Amino acid sequence: MGATSTSIRSQSGKVRRAIVVGGGLAGLTTVIKLCEAGVPVDVLSLVPVRRSHSVCAQGGINASVNTRGEGDSPQVHLEETIYGGDFLANQPPVKGMCDAAPNIVFMLDRMGVPFNRTPEGLLDFRRFGGTLFHRTAFAGATTGQQLLYALDEQVRRWETVDVEDDKGATIPGEKMVRKFEWWDFLSLVIDDAGLCRGIVAQDLKTMEVRAFPGDAVCLATGGPGILFGKSTNSVINTGTAASAAYQQGACYANGEFIQVHPTAIPGADKLRLISESVRGEGGRIWVPRDPKEQRSGRDVPENARDYFLEERYPAYGNLVPRDIASRELFRKCIHERRGIYNPRSNKNEDEVYLDVTHLPREVLKKKLAGVLEIYEKFAGEDPFTNPMRVFPAVHYSMGGLWVDFERTADGSVALGSPRNQATNIPGLYAAGECDYQYHGANRLGANSLLSCIWAGTIAGPAMVTYRKNLAKSSWDCPSSLFERAEKRDEKKFAAILAMEGDENAYALHDELAHVMLVDCTIERKNATLDAVLAKIEEIADRSKRLGVTDRATGKMNQGAQYVRHLRNMIVLARVIAQGARNRDESRGAHYKPEAPARDDAAWLRTTLALHQGEVDGAAAAVRFVREVDYPLLGAPVHATDAVDVSLVRPRPRKYEAADAANRASARPPEAGAQNAPAAAPTNPRTGNRANAR
Amino acid sequence: MRPVKLKIKRQDGPRQPSYWQSFSVPWQPHMNVISALMEIQKRPVTEGGERVTPVVWECVCLEEVCGSCTMLVNGRVRQSCSAMVDALASNGETITLEPMTKFPVVRDLVVDRSRMFDDLKRVRAWIQIDGSHALGPGPRQSSENQEVAYPLSRCMTCGCCLEACPQIAKPGAESATARTARGDFVGAAAINQVRLFNMNPSGQMHAAERLDAVMGEGGVEDCGKAQNCAAVCPKEIPLVDSIAVVGRAATKRMLLGWLLK
Asked: Is residue B147 part of a domain?
C-alpha cells in the first residue's frame, strides 16, 4: 500500500496502466471512468471499437425519468426488472442501476447523442417490453449505434490527452488511452499468488503474440451468441475471452439463461433483429386464423387475424417479456403448425406477421426508420405496406462471468468498492453482456444498454480503488512472468498452425450450433440435453483433429484465429448445456416442459460453474459449486449462490394480469412507504398510447 | 440448384501483388455476398479445383450498421452484407469482389481505414463534456434540430465516400499528379462530423476549433464538388450539404479572422 504502487510510473519508469478488453458500451464507459480518475488505460478490441456489437442495439435505453407524468420511478423500474427476470437477479446491483439510469441518459444526452425529443425539447421516451410505462429513451431505431459513437468519441478525446506524472508534468509520448484495435484476447497473466497481472493478446494484422501488464483488467467482451450459429449477434460474439478466463479459473454464472428474441428476419448468414421498439410504437403480432390462408398479409381482413399475444395478455399485449413472447411464437409455429402458409411450398413456414402497416408513415420514419430499412434491404419487402415476417432468434446471454458487489445498508451498491464487478480472480473485472449481474433469468428490452453503461460506471471506480490499494503493481512484477505467458501462447498458436487433421473448423461449428440451437434454447428436455452433452463431447474430441486451412504467419490469419474461438465456444457450450440439464425447473428464458413451474425452494439460486480439466476444451468438465471464495487486497471474500431478494419479494410471474410487474402489494413496507407517491401509477393503461391506437 | 459464381481479387499481404481467383458455391435462400464468402471458408477450393487459403474479409454486424464489410461489389463500393445475391446475379452472373482502393490492403478484401479514425481526432469530433458524473439534464433541443442531426450521426465510418472521391489519392501513389496538390483531402465523412458537432448546443461552443481543423491544406476547400460521396453513401447522409455548410462557415471564419487582424 506504499506510495510507490499509486505512483503513475513504475520503478523502471513505465506508465502504469489498467487494461480494458472490449470497446463496446461497457468497455468504453470503464475507460472513461478510469481516465477521469487519472488512470491511464490500454484498450484492446477485436475490431475498431466503433464497430463493436453495441452498434446493433436498436430500440433504446431505459430510464425512469417520468416525462409523461405516468408515475414511473426508479423503484418501479427496479420492481419490473426483477419481476421480468423471474427473481434470479441479485437485487442491490439492479437497484443501483435503476437509480442511476436517469443520470446515465442525461450524461449521454450531454455527450451529444441525438435522442428523439418531445415538442418541449425534452427527451422523448417510448414503451418497451415488460412495462406499461414510457421509459425508453431512443435515437431513431439505431440507439446502440448512437450511444456507442458518443462513448467512442469521448474515448478518442482521451486518446489526445497527455499522461501527467505525480507532479503534474506531461510525460512525453504517453497518452491517457492507447488503443489496440484488431487484437484478439488470448489469456490472462496470473501470478503465483493468483492475482491477475495483465493479459496476452494477438495482433490480428501480424499475428504477433504479446503480453500486456495491467494493474487491473476489465473484460467487456460481450456475449457468446455465435455458439448458437445464426443469431442476432455480430460474428465477433463468440464469447472467446470470457471462455478463456473461465478456463483459467474465473467463475461463470447462470450460463443456461439464453434470451431468444421473438422477432428477427430469417437470413442465410444472420437472423437480423427487428427491434421490440417496433411493438413499443404499436406494431402487432398476428397469424391468420385459417392456417391455410392463401392471401398475402395485407389482404387478410381484420376478423381473419389472430392477434394471439393481445388475446392472451390483454394488458401487456405485444409487449410481454421476450421469453414469453418467444415461447408463444414457437408454440404457434412449431406445435400448432400455424405459421404463415406458403402456397408455393404448400406448408406453414416458421414465421408470424409483425404488422406496422396501420401506423402513420411519418411516425414510422421518425422513430423506426433504421430498423424498417433493415427489413426492406434484407427481406426485400416494403414493411410500410406489407406486414413483416419474423421468427424468434437467439439474442442475448443473461449468464456470464460471475461478478461480485458490495451492498449498502439501504440495499444498493457501495460505489467505489473494489468488489463491484470483480470476478473471483483478484484484479480481473467484468462488465457488460459478459457479466451475469443484472438480468436474472430474462432481460427486459432496453435494459442491456443501461446495464452495460452502469457496469462500466462502477467497474472503473472499483478498479481505481483496487489499484490504489495493491501492495505491488503489476508494472513492478518480474518481466519473466509476462515472457512466460507470451511463450505459452506463442506455442499454442504454433500448435494450431501445425494442425493437419481432416475436420474443418467452420463445418464443426455448424454442427455444434445446430444442436445448441435446436435442443438448448426455447424448450429444453432432459433426454435431448443428454444427447446435446454427448454431441458436445464428440465435437470436443473431433476439434483435436482439425486441419487448419490457412498456415500464413506474420500476417492476418483468420482461419487459425477461428480454431481458437471454436475451442472456446465448445467449452462454453458445455457450461450452458450442463447448466440447463441440471436446473429442473422453468424460470424466465429457461423452460422445461417436464418441469413447467418455477421451483424457488430448490432453484432460487445462482448457477456457479468452475472449469475442471485441461484448457482448450478437450477432456474438460464443469464443476458446479454453491460458494465462491476469493482473496481481495489481502482479505478473504465469501459469496454464495443465494440470491439477494431483500428488496422485492419473490412471487409468481403472471403477465396475464394487468400491472402484474409493479403491483404495490409486492413491495416490502419500508421501500413502499418511501416511494409511495411516485410508485402509485395513476392508471398505467391510459399511458399505453401506442396500443390504444 | 444453381451455383453462385464469384471472382475475387486477392492479395496475400500489404504491398504485395494482387491476383484473381474464381469460386463457385451453392445457392441458398436469402443469400448475401457474406454468406457466399462463408461457404468458401468451409470449402476453400477454386472453380478450377485448386485448394487455396480461404478468402479473408472483414465483417461484424451483418446488418449494415457497423460499416466493416465495405468492398467493391461488381465495381461499386458498398457493404457486402446488404449485397443480396439474387439481386446481383439473378441469372447466375459472376459477382466480382475487390478491396477498396483508397486504403492500404491488409489481406485480400481487408483494408486499413485507420486514417478515418485519425481524421476524427483531427476535427475534434466530440463534445467537450465537463465529466461523466451526474450534472443534470443536457441542453434542450428542438425536434427540428434532432431531425437534422440524427441522419448526420448515422455515419458508419465505412469509407464509401472516400473511395468514391476523386480528390482522395490511392495509397502509395507518391507522384505529385496522383495526389492533390495541397496534400490529402480530409474527405466528406470528417467534414460531416464537423457539421454535426457544430450544430449541437454544447458542441457549438467549440465550433471554431473544428473549423480551423478543416481550413487550409487538405481541408474543406479541396472538395472538387464531384458529389460522388452523397451518391454512394449507404445511409444517404446529405454529405454535399454538409460540405457546403462547413465550407460557408469556414469562409466566414476566414474573412472574419482577416477583418479582425
From this structure: yes
**Are residue B169 and residue B99 in the same domain, yes or no?**
no
In angstroms, the CA A214 to CA A610 distance is 24
Q: Do B135 and A558 touch (CB under 8 A)?
A: no
> What residues of A are annotated to the active site?
322
User: Beta strands of A614-681 (E only): which ranges?
Assistant: 620-625, 627-632, 635-640
Statement to judge: residues B167 and B79 lie in one domain: no
Cα dihedral value A444, A449, A451, A453, nearest 10:
-170
Q: A267: which chain B residues are within 8 Å (Cβ-Cβ)?
A: 30, 32, 35, 62
Same domain, B90 and B185: no
The residue type of B23 is F
Question: pLDDT confidence of A210, banded at 50, 70, 90?
Answer: very high
A537-543: Cβ within 8 A, 24+ apart: A539/A508, A539/A511, A539/A512, A539/A570, A540/A570, A540/A574, A540/A617, A540/A618, A540/A619, A540/A620, A541/A618, A542/A503, A542/A508, A543/A503, A543/A505, A543/A508, A543/A567, A543/A570, A543/A617, A543/A618
B84 and B118, same domain (yes or no): no
**Could you tell me which residues are beta bridge partners of residue A199?**
A188, A212
- What domain range is B25 assigned to? 3-110
Q: Does the beta-carbon distance from B32 to A507 stay under 8 Å?
A: no
Residue A576 contacts residue A568 (beta carbons within 8 Å): no
Domains identified in chain A and CATH numbers = 3-256+398-477+635-640 (3.50.50.60), 264-392 (3.90.700.10), 487-605 (1.20.58.100)
Across the interface, which of B56, B58, B134 has its CB nearest the CB of A103? Answer: B134
Q: Do B249 and B167 belong together in one domain?
A: yes
Closest Cα in chain B to A111? B127
Shortest CA distance from A160: residue in chain B: B121
List the beta bridge partners of residue A85: none
Residues in chain B closer than 8 A to A272 (CB atoms): 62-63
Q: How does pLDDT run across B37-86, given as a tens digit for each residue?
A: 999 999 999 999 999 999 999 999 999 999 999 999 999 999 999 999 99
Q: H or E segment at A176?
A: none
Give the separation between CA A100 and CA A96, rounded to whole angstroms: 6
Give domain status of residue B208, yes or no.
yes
Cβ–Cβ of B121/A156 closer than 8 Å? yes
Distance of CA A691 to the CA centre of its chain: 28
Query: Does B20 lie at the interface with A, CB-CB under 8 angstroms?
Result: no
The pLDDT of residue A449 is above 70: yes
CATH code of B57's domain: 3.10.20.30
Report yes or no on B134 lying in a domain: no
B95 and B122 part of one domain: no
pLDDT of residue A661: 85
Chain A, nearest residue to B138 by Cα: A110
- Same domain, yes or no: B227 and B162: yes
pLDDT band, residue A383 (cuts 50/70/90) = very high
- Cβ contacts (< 8 Å) between B124 and chain A: which residues? 157
pLDDT at B261: 64
The residue type found at A280 is: G
What CATH number does residue B190 fall under?
1.10.1060.10
In this prediction the ipTM stands at 0.96
Q: Using a CB-CB distance cutoff of 8 angstroms, which residues of chain B are in contact with residue A390?
A: none
A positions 440-479 inside 8 Å of B (CB): 457
- Mapped onto helix, strand or coil, the DSSP state of residue A449 is helix
